[in-house]
Amino acid sequence: xxxxxxxxxxxxxxxxxxxxxxxxxxxxxxxxxxxxxxxxxxxxxxxxxxxxxxxxxxxxxxxxxxxxxxxxxxxxxxxxxxxxxxxxxxxxxxxxxxxxxxxxxxxxxxxxxxxxxxxxxxxxxxxxxxxxxxxxxxxxxxxxxxxxxxxxxxxxxxxxxxxxxxxxxxxxxxxxxxxxxxxxxxxxxxxxxxxxxxxxxxxxxxxxxxxxxxxxxxxxxxxxxxxxxxxxxxxxxxxxxxxxxxxxxxxxxxxxxxxxxxxxxxxxxxxxxxxxxxxxxxxxxxxxxxxxxxxxxxxxxxxxxxxxxxxxxxxxxxxxxxxxxxxxxxxxxxxxxxxxxxxxxxxxxxxxxxxxxxxxxxxxxxxxxxxxxxxxxxxxxxxxxxxxxxxxxxxxxxxxxxxxxxxxxxxxxxxxxxxxxxxxxxxxxxxxxxxxxxxxxxxxxxxxxxxxxxxxxxxxxxxxxxxxxxxxxxxxxxxxxxxxxxxxxxxxxxxxxxxxxxxxxxxxxxxxxxxxxxxxxxxxxxxxxxxxxxxxxxxxxxxxxxxxxxxxxxxxxxxxxxxxxxxxxxxxxxxxxxxxxxxxxxxxxxxxxxxxxxxxxxxxxxxxxxxxxxxxxxxxxxxxxxxxxxxxxxxxxxxxxxxxxxxxxxxxxxxxxxxxxxxxxxxxxxxxxxxxxxxxxxxxxxxxxxxxxxxxxx
Length: 698
What we know:
The chain is of the alpha/beta class.
């Protein structure tokens, strides 16, 4: 008879070995919240020791953890340090001793101790049942969540509803302990069915579901005609079935690509990939037969069929927030097609498609799962997402990826940005020394065409001052209406701190002493018409001055030039609105963003600008120039909060400073001997790479 357990406190008995061998895989058991225990192999067995005050070090062979209040900028997320090879190593440790059950929970030591007020994340595995599917993501997730993984032993025969009972028991226990915290369920394939079913049965619990190629479409699987054949394969030939299925379920090349640096030359990358495929990846696939024996595979297929049917019959009752991650090359399930169905059925569903990945998305080279959760604004520590308090700064790996893939090395070298700033005594110096290190700081300036200045500016602040400024973003970036949307640029700017332009968000960010970037001209300035380059299109209201004064923020005006050296605007808003189908598309794309307002009193073109892609012709690149003007202090000036006339004078002072910065840069760039990309390239060929290309003297 099948057995189940409702306990969330069982350490895996299969993590035992003989006294002559020390297991390399470690787990820890933990109730919830702050009290942690560590499960370590000692003398060939597993022991549990209480850690009431973790310290983040190893003492007497015991791993201890240090809780962090917040994550630091450019922290190490560990993505790429673990791969599918580590998945198989962990699975071998679990399967050393035959175990008939019951299913139980464990927490990997790699996850460490999360930040303060971190929510809990429960991982529900796919067909393998090992619970090791998060191996490449454990270090990153462990910073942001209390991570627990469900292990379903190979010989366990708990039915689908019995598994749901196990998940529900620990879910309700966690909810009772921390009722105001969201609970995350990450469901991979079959685990996606479990997550949806549990959510349907528990609508009153605040759940966030992260579904990875959920198996709700199992009845439409391309493998359906082959399933009867599996029952006829003799036991001695069963090892060939998991091996063959591995090529259908996942992409071995994508799996082997984890941890290979994209900046390496193509030939070196290919050699490393070949070595990983031949020396580790392909031989490891033969071990799947041990992870999923014949009788277990047949049982899991029956379990999958009954689970998918059960879930689909109750999917209408799901109230939870859902993030759906699907693969474009899933040969096991029609995941892309299923994403459209689920997006239409679920009340609050966000979809991201990874077109080059297979069914085993979490074990393949794509993105860190935490990055995806952050980029879709799904990470929260209370009932509602807060753009200020719930933001997690980008990791070193995320910055490297963004610089390589989004802000390409070619573009960065092509514009070779020059940064200048103004000191308190009025001196203009190279670099960002004139920008205050301590917040709150409000950066206000000119928005170049299509926001071209943002990438180099963000990189400079991070690298020179170790500061991530929080930039405003148009509300359309937060609209989720597409069931085929890929994780792309719009998501990455959220990873790097973009927030919707609302007075509430500006209030929260300044109150937290952040460096905040605000463009008073907004989208209208970034999408200006022909002949309007370097013209400030600001509203008449001075609301940002009064908001800054409320928190004693320092206002730093800045100017940027260079858009006319990289592209020529040939089709502006007025031109595009004369083309019927483009006019309708622009209007439809922005119709749902009216609920977001920063300027409640504004009117006219600045307040109501619609988004569009202007028609531009690229030029041989020139250079970007930035000048941050003299800081304007509002601390100790409480009259600015209520006195509109006094605030207006400061507003005009900031606007005038921006105009002076632009005029200064337009004049001084004529003195730059390396303004042309040809001259900069010549300089680079004759100097060491670490030498920056010089510019004019300020």
